[in-house]
Amino acid sequence: MRLLQRALLAVAAFLCFSGGLGAQALSPEDIYLRAQQAVSALPQPDYIAFTLQDNTQKQHSIDQERLRILVRSSDGHAFVVPIRGADGNPSRDQPGVAETSFERWTALYRIGDFPLADFGLRKHGSGRPGIFEASGTPQPEPTTRPGVRVIASVRVVNIPYRIVNLGDTSIDSHPVYHLGLQPRYDAGHHVLREIWIDKTSLLPRRYVAERFVGGLIPFRYLVTVNAAVIDGHLVNTHADGHFNVNRVLLLHYSGEGRWTASDVTFPAAPPLWLFDPAMYAQHKGEAIPVF
């Protein structure tokens, strides 16, 4: 009898732990908050190096530039070694410093920030606007009515989205939660629209985010981003999205935005002159450190 009781207790404990008998299912908000905690608990690397491969398909061409990029995560400054140009041939451009802007080598906006972008999940991020955010849309500051005396304060968990559970599924044989997100306010700042969260690690494996592109012809489109844990860091490895822009004067611009980050490493302490144009000019002709 005792053996039977122990067996029943063990089964009940297993069912509770695995989401069965007596276990309370997590709400979509709980899943989102736990993912926030899991992302925020991971360390942020001081430097990240990766190889960018652009395969963006436009109406009449395909961008095929390939770059080796070393980024200082504190300010987004990068050192860029061009490997291939947009036509797929060996690049004739010289290596150089990019201070958040990469127009000299690629049309992809702030691509150096892409691998470590957390789309607002990390509680203490880089302090810079996210690479998908619309320009001029800072997160609204809380306001108080003039003349009202503060007599107490209450800590409120602020989730900027309305979140729904779209059903459990799997990615690469890993069970994941699939959530849909609708911004409660400021859609240009809160860019997530869907997220797939690993049930074991509670880390994101995939996002759908709305990308806002500025310039003379601003537009926006949805991008699917795949993420993976590399050497203890959450890294975005692939992005794919269809853009279709219609504007005045019969202007039509469409295509498939596709780019990948591969061969990711986290250098410990590269030379500082790789991140400052003036300092780099003093070291021209020297061998570039391998990264």
DSSP strand content: 35-45%
Overall number of strands: 13
What general outline do the C-alpha atoms trace? Answer: globular
Largest sheet: 13 strands, antiparallel
Query: DSSP helix count?
Result: 3
Distance between the termini: 65 Å
Which regions contain 5 or more consecutive residues with pLDDT less than 50?
7-23, 152-156
Mean pLDDT: 85
Query: In sequence order, what are the helices and strands, one letter per element?
Result: HHEEEEEEEEEEEEEH
Radius of gyration: 23 Å
Q: Share of helix among residues?
A: 10-25%
Class computed from helices, strands and strand pairing:
mainly beta
Please describe the structure with a list of short key phrases separated by commas or semicolons.
13 strands; 3 helices; 13-stranded antiparallel sheet; mainly beta; 36% strand; single chain; globular; 291 residues
Topology:
Blueprint: H1 2-17, H2 28-41, E1 47-54, E2 57-58, E3 66-72, E4 77-84, E5 96-99, E6 161-165, E7 169-171, E8 174-183, E9 192-198, E10 204-213, E11 219-230, E12 233-246, E13 252-265, H3 277-282
Antiparallel strand pairs: 1-3, 1-13, 2-13, 3-4, 4-5, 6-8, 7-8, 8-9, 9-10, 10-11, 11-12, 12-13
Report on the structure:
The protein has helices spanning 2-17, 28-41, 277-282; strands at 47-54, 57-58, 66-72, 77-84, 96-99, 161-165, 169-171, 174-183, 192-198, 204-213, 219-230, 233-246, 252-265. It has 291 residues and is mainly beta. Strands 1, 2, 3, 4, 5, 6, 7, 8, 9, 10, 11, 12 and 13 form a 13-stranded antiparallel β-sheet that branches. Strand 8 and strand 9 form a beta hairpin. The chain starts with a helix and ends in a 9-residue tail after the last helix. The relative contact order is 0.17.
